[in-house]
Amino acid sequence: MRASRYLIATQKETPSDAVVISHQLMLRAGMIRRLASGLYTWLPTGLRVLRKVERIVREEMERAGALEVLMPVVQPAELWEESGRWQQYGPELLRIRDRHGNAFCLGPTHEEVITDLIRNEVNSYKQLPANFFQIQTKFRDEIRPRFGVMRAREFTMKDAYSFHDSADSLQETYDVMYNAYCRIFERIGLDYRPVLADTGAIGGSSSHEFHVLAQSGEDDIAFSTDSRYAANVELAEAVAPGGARPEPSCEMQEVYTPGQKSIPAVNDFLKADPAHSVKTLIVLGECTQGETPPLLALVLRGDHDLNTLKAEKLAGVASPLQFAPESRIAEELHCTIGSLGPVGMEIETIVDRSAAHLADFICGANRDDYHYTGVNWNRDVKLDRIEDLRNIVTGDPSPDGRGTLEVRRGIEVGHIFQLGDKYSRAMNATLLDENGKEQLMSMGCYGIGVSRIVAAAIEQKHDSAGILWPEAIAPFQLAIVPINMHKSDRVRDKCEHLYEFLRSRGIDVLLMDESKARLGAMLADIELLGIPHRVVIGDRGLEKGVAEYKGRADSEAQDFALSQLETVLLEKIDR
Amino acid sequence: MRASRYLIATQKETPSDAVVISHQLMLRAGMIRRLASGLYTWLPTGLRVLRKVERIVREEMERAGALEVLMPVVQPAELWEESGRWQQYGPELLRIRDRHGNAFCLGPTHEEVITDLIRNEVNSYKQLPANFFQIQTKFRDEIRPRFGVMRAREFTMKDAYSFHDSADSLQETYDVMYNAYCRIFERIGLDYRPVLADTGAIGGSSSHEFHVLAQSGEDDIAFSTDSRYAANVELAEAVAPGGARPEPSCEMQEVYTPGQKSIPAVNDFLKADPAHSVKTLIVLGECTQGETPPLLALVLRGDHDLNTLKAEKLAGVASPLQFAPESRIAEELHCTIGSLGPVGMEIETIVDRSAAHLADFICGANRDDYHYTGVNWNRDVKLDRIEDLRNIVTGDPSPDGRGTLEVRRGIEVGHIFQLGDKYSRAMNATLLDENGKEQLMSMGCYGIGVSRIVAAAIEQKHDSAGILWPEAIAPFQLAIVPINMHKSDRVRDKCEHLYEFLRSRGIDVLLMDESKARLGAMLADIELLGIPHRVVIGDRGLEKGVAEYKGRADSEAQDFALSQLETVLLEKIDR
């Protein structure tokens, strides 16, 4: 591409309404422009990147055996009523009426449409498994669209849906898709993690999110230093500490702790380590309707945090989790919250694995202004039920037994999901099995935020000068920068020759052929755009027989002999 | 592609709701499925064709120097209010409101969005000309969607918009786009015509439609047998007959024609040729408001039809054209409509070029039940004003002087348009010219109905067995059909080998590898799908050392020696 026939559209000023760096850089690099809240036009530079992501996604989906289809953006309400989501889905579902008053929505996802298609096209187990994908415009009416294309209202998504006659077949395709997703993010060149995810309200046996690691991510991800294990922090299992619990070494004593009610305060006062104390939280238990729910005690190590998701999934615990009102604690346990402890506690007590491993620990004495020290399980307090109650922390052992956990922030760019029969049941998508018996299909669904990947890649890699693209999705692979091309035929000839040579090798080249452009401005644009390689050609260099090369991430430029320039560039460019 | 991993989804029955052949065949060949009125899902076979059309369009747009962008489907009302189209556009513009109550529309076209973008990005003549295109989902809320994807509500369109600092620059890009469009339709392999079109209400100096010729087309197109001239029948110029008007050869006579009021009736009665008679139509002339419009007479040959568009563009004629009420004709001209004629007519009379060429003709005598015969211009009746008033008919000379005109039906698949400053004026899109003076930009716009091309290609070429694709957009180029593959290793090996060989040469092959599929059913599917080439491989042929080849349009299959099969196929397939 010649800059003289291109729209570079870079901006020096950082737009005031852009908060995150990817949004700022996409505007400054002339990749996108805002049309309205959450609606963006992709300019040529942005679209080049988007198309490269799309191509990799498409190739890997096809390699994984998925067939491409294209479903409408506008979907009839009837199907959403069948699945029950017309009512369930919040105001992100933009509901519209056509000129005849019929109700439609702009599709945020296509489970209903594909299920309707497949229940009509497929009726025998022989036609399954089948897997369909599309790369298509989606709409979600976000209440507060932000972060540019990261959380836009209109966006490009790859969504795939698979159909099966058994759970095994679903698992098989799920695994194929898991691997296809890994290849996609590897080929794009991102530092990513497949992360065990919550299956949420849908149930289903398995779900993974794919996160691009970036400081600005909205999700905390725990992953192993030594294995592929990764999970949302909320879901990562906190395994029991290794080895046996230490033996008691001192007697339990009641100590006076006047006015000390929080873990830090008590431990400061007693000059102790919070990791050797426990905290006791009172929550509501399950009960049949109309009854007063019983109280339950949850006991965690003083330095650990309760994981609500884990707690509310436990038998006997009310879901969603509810803390007991102070009045009931005062009335039934006869003390205030800051002095609670498991010793002598008469309600059911669930102890976290790490807390259960302590010896000689500190806890509240269930009497205001008093704590116990030197408490030991079984000797001083019963230990009936041990569960995983807490959030993991950096340094915890990995649940798969390999390495320890680290916590980093991630941006979700993909999600794969075993839906089971949620939609096929609601919409009566059945097939005849080998015995001619009617059964519900099983479904999987697999999403990738194609436009979001573009922003996530920038969040992951940029510097003060601009974007650092992974080579596979850079808008151009190399820029040729002539110095005073309009004054020097020699410079022009050399640049034109190099341009044609590299293009003939299938390389995406940008020739900065705008006459009178200043060198500094051109180099700044190239860095802002994140073009991985650039060559500067000028009369002074040509006299010495050299051209100047610099990789986008290099700290210094380097001269190469003109005689070797083409060979060097072909080696440096990742093709 | 292997049929065993593909969704062929053919249907034997012709769907009852499909009227036109392309709609029927697209449903039967498993290309599309209806989701709701005017909304279609593209199945794998349909999408393969759509993508091939898209690719050709994209390549030629890029070759023509246009830059690809991607604008949102959802557009804010404000911009349409600025251009005035929020009010002007009919109910085809689907107006919606988001969760905050803000007004938007689903874009049927993107003049407003691109003009808004360019007025912000471009401010100097040095940045122009610029030309941007997108291939994108459009929505038009048709009152009665029909003919499948031919007139769907949601469809894929390529739209391009160019910006200029002068009319010359606009004309230059217009010509480039004209040629790009010709290359696109040639590469796709369609019989098409670029057709002079009406610039309608927008004005502008030039507009061409691109029509695919097909009997089922909705538009009548006149085109020359011997040149590239083509125009909508409504716009084609009817040139004056060659040579001088014949000399009068008989006297004018008033003849009694009791009750004969129409041209056929009068000519039957007088045993004359309508081509030697004239008809006289009374219309309203222009007038200043409040005045009674004067009457005007339009005189045409008896066998010709008035062209309303041409008439209402003439000076002195009311636009839109209005016929005079019978009461005024009776009152002012003293006769009824069936007896009107130019002889002695006291109101202004405009004579069509062909009528003006007649001698010894018949016309009404302005007296009920009487006509004149042997009438001659200038001798019996004055001839002040001659104009082109009529629709052309087959056999008319071509306006460019080369060949004669034929009329065929066409399907509009493209439209290019010089918009001038319609949008830049309304939306204040200005630039600074060479002298630093602010001026309005000039614009061109260029559309192609990408999804409509798919249907139009089928309308143009099909037979009783199914579709005949142009090779460039066929879903597959070749099908390999094994006979009893599941029983014969030899057949399987030969088919697999041929499949891999052709794929390695970049050919789109469909291997019919579904075990137990019947040969007749497979061949019927291949013909229905319109795959241009197919090879049948069976044990009996292999024993004789041959395979059977048939081109989709061939009447007979042909055996080829296995030793030459690959060479023969590579020759036959258009690559």
State the separation between the terminal residues of chain A, measured CA to CA. Answer: 18 Å
Helix count of chain A?
A: 15
Strand content of chain A: 25-35%
Mean pLDDT of chain A: 94
Round the Cα radius of gyration of chain A to an integer and report it.
30 Å
Task: Sketch the major β-sheet of chain A.
Answer: 9 strands, mixed
Tell me the greatest interface. A-B, 48 and 48 residues
Oligomeric state of this protein: homodimer
What is the β-strand count of chain A? 30
Poorly predicted ranges of chain A: none
Helix content of chain A: 25-40%
Structural class of chain A: alpha+beta
Overall geometric form of chain A: globular
Organism (chains A, B): Microbulbifer spongiae
Catalytic activity (chains A, B): tRNA(Pro) + L-proline + ATP = L-prolyl-tRNA(Pro) + AMP + diphosphate
Domain Aminoacyl-transfer RNA synthetases class-II family profile (chains A, B): 33-470
GO molecular function, one term (chains A, B): proline-tRNA ligase activity
How are the secondary structure elements laid out?
Two copies of one chain form a homodimer.
Chain A: H1 21-28, E1 32-36, E2 39-42, H2 44-63, E3 67-68, E4 74-76, H3 77-83, H4 85-88, E5 95-97, E6 103-106, H5 111-121, E7 130-139, E8 154-164, H6 167-188, E9 192-196, E10 207-213, E11 219-224, E12 230-232, E13 253-256, H7 263-270, E14 278-284, E15 295-301, H8 308-312, H9 326-333, E16 348-352, E17 361-364, E18 370-375, E19 385-387, E20 405-420, H10 422-426, E21 430-432, E22 438-440, E23 442-449, H11 450-460, E24 462-463, E25 466-467, E26 478-482, H12 489-504, E27 509-511, H13 519-529, E28 533-537, H14 539-544, E29 546-551, E30 558-561, H15 562-572
Parallel strand pairs in A: 3-7, 15-16, 16-19, 26-27, 26-28
Antiparallel strand pairs in A: 1-2, 4-6, 5-6, 7-8, 8-23, 9-10, 10-20, 11-12, 11-20, 13-18, 14-15, 17-18, 20-23, 21-22, 24-25, 28-29, 29-30
Helix pairs in contact in A: 1-11, 2-6, 2-11
